[in-house]
Amino acid sequence: MLTKILFTALVIVAVYLFYRHRGRAPVKVKEVKAPVEQSNIGRFAAYGFIAALLLVSVIIYYFHWQEAHRIVTIRVIDGNSSNVTVYKAYQKSIKGNRFESLDGKTVVLGESERVEFIEEE
């Protein structure tokens, strides 16, 4: 996720530098011109857009991180003996039929076991 944010920022900076240097052409003859006041609206708009993009990226990354670190209670019910085992794990550690509990145990579920996920608030 962080690499996506950094790659997006790199592309934005590259495009900004490209357009900034593209308009400059070497001047052979110097002419005296009256000073022209340039508007900084375009520059402020570009900086504002970059800042908004980075802010949105950070917010999305935070919510993704928060979702991945949510604690879930997992009840594993053995189909043959009806024994119930309760585990707690992070949402990000659940991958298919296996997960790692908060106390470091790696649990691989069999086909005869039922699983109930209970989200904690």
Q: Total strand count, please?
A: 5
Radius of gyration: 28 Å
Q: Low-confidence parts lasting 5 or more residues at pLDDT below 50?
A: none
- Give the ordered list of helices and strands: HHEEEEE
**What is the averaged pLDDT score?**
85
| Helical coverage, percent range | 40-55%
Biggest β-sheet: strands ordered side by side in the sheet: 2-1-5
What is the overall shape?
A: rod-shaped
The span between the termini is 25 Å
* Count of helical stretches: 2
> What structural class do you assign from the helix and strand content?
alpha+beta
Number of domains: 2
Which band does the percent of strand residues land in?
15-25%
For the largest beta-sheet, the strand count, sense and barrel status come to: 3 strands, antiparallel
Overview of this protein structure:
The protein has 121 residues and is of the alpha+beta class. The chain folds into two domains: 67 residues, no CATH class; 49 residues, no CATH class. Helix content is 40%, strand content 23%. The chain is rod-shaped, with a radius of gyration of 28 Å. The protein starts with a helix and ends with a strand.
Short descriptors:
about 120 residues; alpha+beta; three-stranded antiparallel β-sheet; 2 helices; 5 strands
Question: Brief description of this entry?
Answer:
By secondary structure, this protein is an alpha+beta fold. 40% of the residues lie in helices and 23% in strands.
Describe the secondary structure blueprint for this structure.
Elements: H1 2-22, H2 41-68, E1 71-78, E2 84-90, E3 98-100, E4 106-108, E5 113-119
Antiparallel strand pairs: 1-2, 1-5, 3-4
